[in-house]
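RETRY 2/3 - previous attempt timed out on the joint model. Re-submitting the same 798-residue input unchanged.
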Amino acid sequence: MFGEALQRVRAQAPVVHNITNYVVMNTTANALLAVGASPVMAHAPREMEEMVGIASALVLNIGTLSDHWIEAMVVAGRAARRRGIPIVLDPVGAGATSYRTNTALRLLAEVSPTILRGNASEIRALGAQPGTEPGATRGVDSVHATEESLDAARALSAAHGCVVSVSGATDLIVAGEKVARVRNGVPVMARVTGMGCTASALTGAFAAVTASPFDAATQAMAVMGVAGEAAAQRAAGPGSFQIAILDALSALSPDDLQRGVRVEAE
Amino acid sequence: MFGEALQRVRAQAPVVHNITNYVVMNTTANALLAVGASPVMAHAPREMEEMVGIASALVLNIGTLSDHWIEAMVVAGRAARRRGIPIVLDPVGAGATSYRTNTALRLLAEVSPTILRGNASEIRALGAQPGTEPGATRGVDSVHATEESLDAARALSAAHGCVVSVSGATDLIVAGEKVARVRNGVPVMARVTGMGCTASALTGAFAAVTASPFDAATQAMAVMGVAGEAAAQRAAGPGSFQIAILDALSALSPDDLQRGVRVEAE
Amino acid sequence: MFGEALQRVRAQAPVVHNITNYVVMNTTANALLAVGASPVMAHAPREMEEMVGIASALVLNIGTLSDHWIEAMVVAGRAARRRGIPIVLDPVGAGATSYRTNTALRLLAEVSPTILRGNASEIRALGAQPGTEPGATRGVDSVHATEESLDAARALSAAHGCVVSVSGATDLIVAGEKVARVRNGVPVMARVTGMGCTASALTGAFAAVTASPFDAATQAMAVMGVAGEAAAQRAAGPGSFQIAILDALSALSPDDLQRGVRVEAE
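RETRY 2/3 succeeded.
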């Protein structure tokens, strides 16, 4: 299943439209190219409808949000809904400020993303029950293990009818009662900016070519993890890792992926 | 001619003012530094006049355009016109949305760029005759060979009095009846984001130190191609290629350039 | 002292809030992660107060300024003042345009930064006495040696009660009558975009964990220089240097730092 999904990305080269943050635009565009997809970065409200019209997936990322960009995300999200293409939302920094938490909740409500992909602290912040305390976040880095976000992920999946994909040492993918855990990856990934954002972008690419969003989210995290393991073999630190994972995404064969995946589904 | 042009860039270190897209700002600034030029990135309308005043070339790139940025491009372009410094326009994604096509056409009309530098699909979209079909684009990646854009390039060159530089497996440079073809470069360049934008930035650097825009456009594509060939020798994939081409641009000697160039002029 | 400061950064992992330019966001975020800090990039005025509330230092950088971003810098700066966390200002391109010079002077007056960190041309432009000529700048690159900015740095330190940190072949750190000179570093750093901006970001990280801003500014320049020397051993040019310095920042041990530092204080 994993190897075939990677082959589909390369065969179809889906156009993935990203409205994402300034920090990771270059990295995520290159990761999409490396894995075989075709990235577009565009955010002017006046071209959203048309740009979404040529895309096979939409990725929304609030990492450096501002009001104009949120407007573009809403317009693009609605256009994607109408066209029926998958939407991935990365709620970067949800919980760190109410502006981010509220924007993520607004996008969940108005855009109805197919897949919500964040770290454990973000998912806890969004899935907190009224009157409970999600626990502190610390800027945009997670301070929770992914298992600590399982209840929140289930609640969000049920409330919004979306798949929830939580990255961490073990990635959690939740869809209703279904849970998959991806045990690939390496610790240095937490020391490189934009690895979570890259996972979100790849999730868009796999969602474009895979019918099940749950499977697509799992595939993307597996690809990130297996490529990360290969990259760590060649990297001398976080700088060279950031480059090596692009090489690894490009070099990854369907067979190597299939052999390397460590996924458990329940 | 090519080696001497590279020497001039390094001797004069021209200030190249870029109003460009978020995805490639770091890469293009580093490429300009590597080749020996001095990059400036600035877009506030209130400083355009003054910033253009210290620049030796202006590069306009609509890759992540929005209304405020277009305003800055028009102001900067007019100031560059008045000063008589060369202007390079990269119409990223023209044809993908009408906003992009119309913005590129507006900049062609109002700013009168010295050199229009794009991929084949973009040039076809801009040079299409009324009532004809330019052929689909696919996001920001070209789906046409450069030879398929020759008629459009000629039409644009005649209509706007500019040089048209089309990047691809073989680069085409067109000025009126003159055509040059640069046969350097490597396929991996299509797998790294911003290689076209980097070519546009370098075109600005060479236009700043070369009297003929046709020659400058040809020099820039030759430098990209020869440096790309050197970088490919050291790169394990698209990630390490993006880094290796910066090293190669810095290490490229005028003699190596002159020996490596494969250019045909008709 | 230097080794202990580095240990404190890694032990405390201070959240450093950056309002910085598009060109260097990725590089500076990765440099902060590599040294052991936790970067946040955010600029929406509506979240400034809250985001500053979770930060241990604020870094303001005007490299690609526009009116909305300046507004965010003022709001964030005032919030940081109220909270008593250190503020670093990088006046990128001051002197190149009056918009940049005036914005830097306005931020000096309204935000009262703890540390002003620029290159020699920028410091001269800001510290010029009325009626005197600071000397030309050339875009965003310095055309002066740091010693030529000593008088301006002293004047700015006295006028604004801040530490002034000037990067160059020899870095100058000035606080009132005190001067330190950091003689680490390598020439290739001038060929990579954003090295000054990275120094400013690291200055924020060290200011977050060191009581004396003068010491913190000196520590940050020493870390940049020693890591740069290590990186140059592994780099084949400016491209690979940009990556190698991230690896070096991550690998730098307190002992290696202490041994490698070449600092003179008067």
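The radius of gyration of chain A is 17 Å. Closing ticket.
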